[in-house]
Amino acid sequence: MAKRNIAITGGAGFIGSHVVRLFVNKYPEYNIINLDKLTYAGNLANLKDIEDKPNYKFVKMDICDFEAFYKLMQEEHINGIIHLAAESHVDRSIKDPFTFARTNVMGTLSLLQAAKLYWESLPEKYEGKRFYHISTDEVYGALAMNHPEGIKPPFTTTASSTEHHLAYGDDFFYEETKYNPHSPYSASKASSDHFVHAYHDTYGMPTIITNCSNNYGPYQFPEKLIPLFINNIRHRKPLPVYGKGENVRDWLFVEDHARAIDVIFHEGKVAETYNIGGFNEWKNIDIIKVVIKTVDRLLDRKEGEDLALITYVPDRLGHDVRYAIDSTKLQKELQWEPSLQFEEGIEKTVRWYLENQEWMDNITSGEYEKYYKEMYEDKDIPN
Ligand code: NAD
Ligand code: DAU
After folding, report:
1. Does the global pTM surpass 0.85?
2. Which parts of the sequence belong to the NAD-dependent epimerase/dehydratase domain (predicted)?
3. Which domain holds residue 23?
4. What CATH number did the domain enclosing 151 receive?
């Protein structure tokens, strides 16, 4: 096999940094090029531990810059692309959809076209190449919640050990599920997925797409539920729960997502889609209670004392009711499965944020405060 020169886009973000770390440490013989614009969500502090490794390089670049990416492909002889760069936060997409269309749609198209031109110019063309696009379960829309109290296994099979791991409806998102995105974010991701399919079907580009459920773990930007709430609990600030807190999300530890990406990049079948998830559905309010109790315990507070911080606020516009991903294909065909039970994952995550307060404090100063104020001011939440 040719030496791998892999461009990982969005490598300074949450999931991207875990993928970069895994690849840099596991494959010293590969060249790993982290390509990131460093938006508010990109943070090179996420990669401090590997930044001096000889097989790692960081390039600051906007994925919409076609010329720059084409040049980089030529200079670095890129033969693999793992594309994670995106605007990723649903709430921001509701306020500013254009940025999402620009990066997620035009940026993806720009990468595809540069890869096409470069790879088609080589004697071996697409042989040994991979364009791996990281997408989301949100493109499938929302599932019904027809069992509001939850059903016991066999609906949930792998990561289950407590009553919280129940399925809240009798359907899942499958690879064949029709796309039906609702938010500007998911619409932009769906559109980028269609372009990736089109480059395979039209030009024969060796593409793969994966659609993953909600990730949690270290290095997540605190605009997302779990790190935001851990930080607010630490500072005893109100916890803004959208609507009644009844929406269901399906949670996967981020390192398990990175492991899946590794397996699929190397062994996945070209032109296929794989769903990634751990059969781990939770109502928001239940997960919030677990996070509160874990933080309280680790901070030596009275367990549950911060439940009083829960503050119900107006719902997110177009809030999808339930996500639940069926990852049987990935588990059966490529023998991947989540390595962590949810309880272990959440304990590890809360502990990490509490032990890395400097990382959090660096992010939550300045611009973040402005964002928080703007995002939550309509919701009547004190800052
Ligand atoms: P993130 O917001 O933490 O990171 C995104 C990264 O992309 C940042 O480093 C940012 O600087 C970079 N970026 C943004 N615009 C760019 C541009 N124009 N050019 C170059 N770089 C740019 O996101 P994340 O949560 O790590 O998500 C990564 C990918 O995984 C996204 O494609 C997202 O849709 C997908 N995904 C996320 C989740 C989740 O739960 N977080 C679940 C499934 C899929
Ligand atoms: O399903 C995969 C998706 O998961 C990814 O594609 C997205 O990039 C990622 O951001 C995530 O989207 P969600 O909208 O599900 O994640 P978020 O953390 O923003 O919200 C999780 C749930 O918590 C959702 O139902 C909204 C609710 N919520 C969120 C915030 C930030 C609250 O109740 N209060 C909040 O303050």
Report:
1. yes
2. 6-277
3. 5-220+249-282+318-343
4. 3.40.50.720
